[in-house]
UniProtKB/TrEMBL annotation:
Protein name: Cholesterol esterase
InterPro entries to which the protein is assigned, alphabetical: DUF6230
Species the sequence originates in: Thermobifida halotolerans
Highest rank taxon of the organism: Bacteria
Length: 204
């Protein structure tokens, strides 16, 4: 994805129309973040930890996708613009997730790997995405739809008058993503491997 700066509009709001068009290919891959939760469908909004995490996958196949601009807020009331992305059903092949944690003995990396032979599957994903790169294709895509009228997903809706996009399907190859939070309805991690390693060992 091109290196674009998210600018503020004169009245202090985020330029969501420009942001959505720039972020379109990457934000469709939100389903991959299902690897971050195993507790069913959570609330659509919660205080994030303040640290982002990284995801990579050889391929994402998704059915039912929508995206619109939103805000992620940390427990210290720090807020940041994100692309809130919703995907009904997703399959992720050869997935890696990494998060850095600060410990008394120094920095460590939490690594989750799954889906090398049988894809990771997830439903009803709601993801706060900051950045993503990959090769994406969509079917029956609608760009510029009002965020309060989305009908290809059963997740949360945006504000009336807000810019949004949605599509029937999405496929992304060679996915890399930076995100702040995720909610998931159901999740199945085949071939799960979890490691905690001293130092920095991120997926990308």
């Amino acid at each position: 994805m091109a290196d674009e700066t998210i600018t503020a509009s004169p009245d202090g709001g985020t330029a969501w129309r420009r942001f959505a068009l720039v972020a379109l290919p990457g934000l469709a891959a939100a389903g991959i973040l299902g690897a971050m939760t195993t507790q069913g469908l959570l609330a659509a909004s919660f205080a994030v930890s303040g640290d982002h995490f990284k995801i990579s996958a050889a391929k994402l196949d998704g059915t039912g996708f929508a995206q619109y601009g939103d805000v992620a807020t940390s427990v210290d009331d720090t807020s940041r613009p994100v692309g809130l992305s919703v995907i009904e059903e997703a399959e992720l092949t050869d997935m890696c997730m990494s998060a850095l944690v600060d410990l008394p003995i120094g920095t460590a990396t939490v690594l989750i790997n799954a889906g090398e032979e049988t894809p990771v599957t997830a439903t009803n994903m709601v993801v706060d995405v900051e950045q993503l790169e990959g090769n994406a294709s969509f079917s029956a895509i609608e760009i510029g739809r009002d965020a309060s009228t989305l009908n290809k997903v059963s997740g949360p809706q945006g504000e009336p008058g807000g810019f949004a996009l949605q599509s029937d399907t999405v496929v992304i190859d060679d996915l890399t993503m930076v995100a702040w939070a995720v909610n998931s309805g159901t999740l199945r991690l085949s071939g799960l491997k979890l490691n905690v390693k001293p130092g920095t060992h991120e997926c990308f």
